[in-house]
Amino acid sequence: SDVDGTLVPDGGHDLNPEYFTQIRRLKRNGILFAAVSGRPYTSLRRLFAPVEDDILFICDNGACTIYRGSLLSCCCLPHSLAFEIIRDIEALPGCTSYISTLENGYVRKEAEELYRWLTEGYQLNITRLDRLPEDIPAREKILAVELYHPNAAEEAAGQGFYRKWHGH
Fold it and tell me: Is the pLDDT confidence value at 158 over 90?
């Protein structure tokens, strides 16, 4: 099942407890429930904590699949590619980046609104950095780079960004 906009409102962090009952019922009948989301694993694990060992997590829009705490698959972006995307986002007026890794998320220190939305709504582990992409730790496996604009992300992406990166 999709999560945001389906099981919870976008950015929500409270599941109806009846879902846990249904997930356990599915398991008893030999059906594995999969939580599928653009959210990272850390957020999904918190959301589904009562049944976390009973379900499959497909996270970061399919970049990572985890079952019972074991990483089954992970598709990471090469740092050179991720950094180029981040630089292009940061160059767009009014835009900033959110970088998702297996354990953490990263935003620019000045991105206060984005930081609050990700930590308070999605309850993500976010580290604020002085410089993007330069300050992202080299050991991090980058799963996703997302463009954020407070009210016009699609219009901002239309300024050449979409044409360059669509279908990449």
Answer: no
Give the whole-angstrom CA distance, residue 24 versus residue 44. Answer: 17
Phi and psi, residue 133, nearest 5°: -95, -5
Q: What is the pLDDT of residue 30?
A: 97
- Assign 3-state DSSP to the chain and report helix, strand, coil percentages, each to 5: 35, 25, 40
At 10 the pLDDT is 85
CA distance 33 to 95: 36
- Say how far apart CA 150 and CA 24 lie, in whole Å: 39
H helix count then E strand count, the chain: 6, 8
pTM of the full predicted structure? 0.86
pLDDT at 48 (0 to 100): 97
Measure CA 43 to chain center: 8
Amino acid at 47: L
CA 161, chain centre distance (Å): 20
Average pLDDT over residues 24-39: 97
- The region, left, alpha or beta by phi > 0 then psi within -120 to 50, assigned to residue 45 is alpha
